[in-house]
Structures are given as structure tokens and as C-alpha cells.
Amino acid sequence: MSMFKWDVVDPGPGEAVAPHQRLAWGKTVGLGAQHVVAMFGATFVFPIVMGLNANLAIMMSGIATICFLLIVKGKVPSYLGTSASFVGAATAIYAYDGAGGPGGPADVTGAILVAGVVLALVGVVIHVLGANAVNKVLPPVVTGAVVMLIGFNLAPVATKTYMPADPWVAIITMLAVILMAVGLRGFFGRIAVFLGLIFGYVLSWVVDLIWGQTSLPLPGNPEPGPHNRVDWSAVSAADWFGFPTQTVDGLVGNQAFTPGYADVGWHLPTFSIAFILLALPAVIALTAENLGHVKAVAEMTKVDLDPVMGRAVAADGVATVIATSVGGSPTTTYAENIGVMAATRVYSTAAYFVAAFVAILLGLVPKFGAIVNATPPGVLGGITLVLYGMIGLLGAKIWKENGVDFGRPINLVPVAAGIILAIGDGALKITDDFVLSGIALGTIVAVGGYHLARAVAPASERDEGTMLSVGTQGVHAEDHAEPHDHKRDHKHDHKRD
Fold first, then answer.
1. Tell me: the pLDDT tens digits for 210-221?
2. What are the distances in angstroms from CA 411 to CA 421, 457, 462, 470?
3. In terms of pLDDT, which residue wins out, 39 or 478?
4. 246, 267 in Cβ contact below 8 A?
5. What phi and psi, each to the nearest 5 degrees, are found at residue 30?
6. With a threshold of 0.90, does the pTM exceed it?
């Protein structure tokens, strides 16, 4: 059956709609719009954080989704939004202090494009050899460490770059996201970040009305002078329809929240070995993310998707290459959209094609992009406090779900060193022109150190290891034991007597 022909169904309560099926077009369009809303918040937040054009990111996410669905032949329903895994790499590129100095938007997209090529090749390897081949090189202990160090390395961006622009707005926005993520149910709970951004936007506008302008520093501009938290002058000047403009040549550093941000649009990428190495660690995170996505969809749809697992990983790599080749942001499968599928039990790929076309149309509305670009940095501060921490803790989730034992030095020692190097933004000068630092250096130590440890460790330590100060497995079981029933124990004592 063609990917563009779906069996029309009218399911009863609780019945699922398979990927090759669809509801009536009216309902399908509604579900497609719901998928756009689900991916919307993070998909335009992360381009801003990475200093890329949000309109272009939304547009390319739609194109990337269509490419993904074609490559997996419609068997893995998914939406590809902007990946958070490259935020750390972009930050490092903009702040690079090696030869040639910091990079600009074209350097960021060039480095990510190469990472996309590598991800596509990893997908080919998985397709040919199976996922176990990748698991041997990147076991859960290593994958979890890389995801964790990517997230936690970004902590200073949230606290030192965005939050100082309006600390109280940042904290209140953060609390709103927490309360909505926990307190709201169903679909609204899944888009808590997006709702938190709207809340923070409105809060900033209200604060402007009540307390007037602020003189707090904007990111990249420590002495901006009095200014409104919400400034829509660029929104008024933006067109209703049109393609993003071309990026101005020679931009250096993250242009977000500076007058130069309006100069960031579409562009051809540029390539540097130093910047590419900063972006490559994200491939590990994306591989784990895509494999997890396919497994989650397989569990929901009750279909064996192992044969297309490699295709899905490669498709995300190809989509990232296509998006960044014109200056767009990197892509990844979105957990938010898995949540929509879980809530609705509609797995139809028709809804995802609709969502993709809606996103492409949104990308052609410059006024919408101007509203996105006007997001107050204090609001992003509150959101990134949550988002970056969540990225980091996803690494711990990988460890927990795979039963990684940190009582074994082979797991504990190299991973611990790599994480601290990344979070502390350690640097190692290789040559006068090349410096390894932060995420790249931490990843090399975590991955290389783990395999080096395995190579030199005696066979007995690979299996058991020294338990250091944490004790043996089960030693703390008593901490979680049920309370003793002293009356019951007393009865048993009498019986024994």
C-alpha cells in the first residue's frame, strides 16, 4: 500500500488507529494541529538559544518530518522538532577561545551538519549490524554520562546568561513550569514548557506596565540602558508572509537578544575541525534518543519495529543535514508527540504529514517569527533552568533503566572524570590552533576512559569490581523494609515458647 493512502476508520472508544490508518480528514487535521502545538514550544525555544532563526527552524522541522516519514516508509510515526542536544555545542562554538576566536551561526550549522552525517552513518551501521553493535561501543553507562554532561554543562547559560536579565521573572516562570508540569493532566501537562513560556511572556508585559522599564543586563549586552522587557517594535515592522532573510556575513557569537539577531536567517554552513569536534558528542545522545523513541512507538503500537530502527536513526541524521544545509536547526524525534499519541491512541502518519505542512506554513510568516524572537530573556532563563536540568537527568534515567552499577570502578571512575571535565568546562590545548574543552573533552574521557578501563581491568573486576564506599548490592535494603510489627513479633515469641 502507498504511504499516501490510508485506510479510513471510525474507531470505538479506546480503540487505536494504526500508522497505516486515518480518521476522517477533519479530525486528522485537528490531530495534526495538536502535534504542532506539542512540538512548538521546544522547537522554537532551542533555535533562539542557539542563535539561529526560529522561523526557519519551524519551517525546516516540517520538511525534516516529511523526509523522516519517507525514509522509514511510514512505519514509525514521529515529528522531528529542534534538538536540544546541540545547545551545548553551539554555546561552546560561540565562546571558543582557540585560534581564530569564537564562531558564528554559519559555524554552528556547519558543525551540526557534519554531526548529522555521522548520525546517518550510525543508522546505516545499526541497519546492517543491529543495535547491539552500537551498544557495545556506547553502553548505557557511557550514553547516560554523555547525555548528563550535555545537559549540566549548560547550567551557566541558564544562570549567568539568561537569568540575570530578570531574575524574579525567571524564578516565577520556572515555578509556573514546575506547577503546570505536575498539576496539569493529559495533553496540557505535556506542553507545560510552552504554557510556561506564554505565562512568562504575559508576566513580563504586566511587570512592564506596573513597574516600568528595566536596566538589567541583556545577554551579550551588559549595559543596555533602560528597556522594556517585551519589545514588539520588530513585530509591527515584520511582514505577514515571506521567506526568512539571508544571514549577514561575518557574524560572530550568539546574536540572540542583540540588534544583530534580526540579521540571522538562512545561510550556507561553514566548516571547522575544532567546531565539528564540539558538536560530535551530541551524536551519542541522539542515537540513544532515537532508539528509545522507536522502542516506545513499538510498545504503543504493538508492532516489531526493530527492522526499521536503523532507518529511523539514519532518517534523523539525513533530516539534520537537510535542515542545517540552509541554516536551520538540528532535528530529533520528540517525546512530546509520543505523549500525544499515547493520549489519543492515534498513531496515523497522516496526522504527522498534516503537522509538517502546518509547520512549513508557519515558517513563512515573518510576523510570527518576530513574536518568537521578542521572547524576554528572563523568561528563557526560567524555562532553561528546567529544560537543561531535565536533559541532564535524562542521563540518570538511562542509567537507572539499564541497571548501571556504580559500585564497579569500571563504570564509576572514567564516567565521573568525564562529567566533571564537561560541567567544569575544562580545557586541554592540543595545538596553538586547537583546544579541546567542555562537552567534547568530557565525552572523549567518558567514552575512551571506559573502554581503556575495560581493556586493563582483570576479568574479575569487569564482573564485580571493588565496591568503594557504597557497599555491596542490597546492603541498604533494610532502609526500605516494612516497619516491624512488635506485637506480631511478640506473639511469635510466645508461640515458640
1. 888 787 777 766
2. 16, 11, 9, 13
3. 39
4. yes
5. -60, -40
6. no
